[in-house]
Amino acid sequence: MRLELDGIGASLESKYGETIVRHIVPGGAADKDGRIKVDDIITGVAEGPAGEMLDITDMKLTDVVSKIRGRAGTTVRLGIMHKDSKDVEVISIERAKIPIESIPYAYMIRPGVGYVRPIRFSQTTGEELEKAVSTLRTQGMKQLVLDLRSNSGGLLSPAADVLGQFAPANK
Predict the structure, then answer these.
(1) pTM above 0.85?
(2) Number of C-beta neighbours around residue 26 at 10 A
(3) Which of 34, 38, 114, 154 is a plausible cystine mate for 136, CB 3.0–4.6 Å?
(4) Please, which contacts does 99-106 make with residues 24 or more away whose CB atoms are closer than 8 Å?
(5) Strand partners, 23
(6) Would you call 66 helix, strand, or coil by DSSP?
(7) In sequence order, which residues have a C-beta less than 8 Å from that of residue 24 and are 6 or more positions away?
(8) 114 near 145, Cβ under 8 Å?
(9) Which residue(s) pair with 29 in the sheet?
(10) End-to-end CA distance of the chain
């Protein structure tokens, strides 16, 4: 279960009939392009270089997302109103594969104490955990909080791999 989507790599929210960018996925198409920012409002969506721009005001978020997502390598045009402007900029962006991390949260919560929160167990979870723990150790981590609250589950083998990184062998 390796999770990935095709799209622009942005999380959206619908509020008062507007579609607002809430998160840009690091390494995703929007991040690499650099013109779309958190808190920008998406006002329109068009397929390809010549498609008609569709006003998405008051459109259900699931419908907006389905119009923005598409096969990697194809182009979508978005009407974007940046947070400090009332002008709409039309941005063409090529959709790409967007890997979905199973460990989006890994940081130091205080000196010597690291925090890691896996949100699911996928093929890459063990590898992601090793990388996160290694990074935290270089930052001085001596203790670790492994937060499994609200973990949606997933594959058994990666869950066992995570346990194996902390439990002695054959226990």
Answers:
(1) no
(2) 11
(3) 114
(4) 99/2, 99/3, 99/4, 99/27, 99/124, 100/3, 100/4, 100/5, 101/128, 102/3, 102/128, 102/154, 102/158, 103/128, 103/129, 103/132, 105/147, 106/132, 106/135, 106/136
(5) 11
(6) helix
(7) 9, 10, 30, 31, 36, 37, 38
(8) yes
(9) none
(10) 26
Strand runs labelled E in the chain: 4-7, 10-15, 18-24, 41-47, 54-55, 75-81, 88-94, 96-99, 105-110, 113-117, 143-146
Quick one: what percent of the chain has pLDDT higher than 90?
A: 66
> Can you give the length of the chain in residues?
171
pLDDT in tens, 81-94: 998 899 999 999 99
CB 70 within 8 A of CB 97: no
